[in-house]
Amino acid sequence: MEEEKELIDRCLNQDSSAQEELYHRFASRMYGICLRFAGETVEAQDLLQEGFIKTFQKLRSYRSEGSFEGWIRRIFINTAINVKRREMKFNVNKDIDQDHHPEDAGADALSRLSQQELLDLIHQLPLGYRTVFNLYVIEGYKHREIGKMLKISENTSKSQLSGARKSLRMLLNKQGYDHGRDR
């Protein structure tokens, strides 16, 4: 804890080696967040860079309440949300057809996927679905919180999550994960 405070103080004093250390300490974990929200690795790298710029700009506002990693994580999530919110304005009608209801994939299909396979499936979701799915399922936010963050209603958040789940089942079925059997 004391070591972390010292690192923060050095960053606030514009110590470039401390800034580099802070970057290396948190980059891989924050990149994981960026990857979940981004559609591709280049976009994730852009989000990572933008998130660290905002982290260093806002560092003076960190009050040592709660974990520092949690504070940084929130900056990265908000950065991704702001980017996605701008994109969602232009992609409002790009959702997968919700009238098609294929047979459900086996309940354990997701548990048999590798992390990369799951990430690839999530990246295939339309932007609104992907954003709400990430916030609700992976980051653990409630629909009310998601609604506030994305400036949508709580019911829209619930609808987007439902659509994301249906779309994931469709994708799983398409890839041969039906009825609980492997491909």
What does the model show?
The chain has 2 domains: 2-90, RNA polymerase sigma factor, region 2, helix turn helix motif (Rna Polymerase Sigma Factor, Chain: A); 110-174, Arc Repressor Mutant, subunit A (Orthogonal Bundle), CATH 1.10.10.10. 68% of the residues lie in helices and 0% in strands. The protein is elongated and about 55 Å long. It is mainly α and 183 residues long.
Brief description of this entry?
The protein has 183 residues and is mainly alpha-helical. The protein has helices at 2-12, 16-37, 41-58, 68-90, 115-123, 127-138, 143-150, 154-174. The longest helix is centred in the middle third of the chain and has 23 residues, at 68-90.
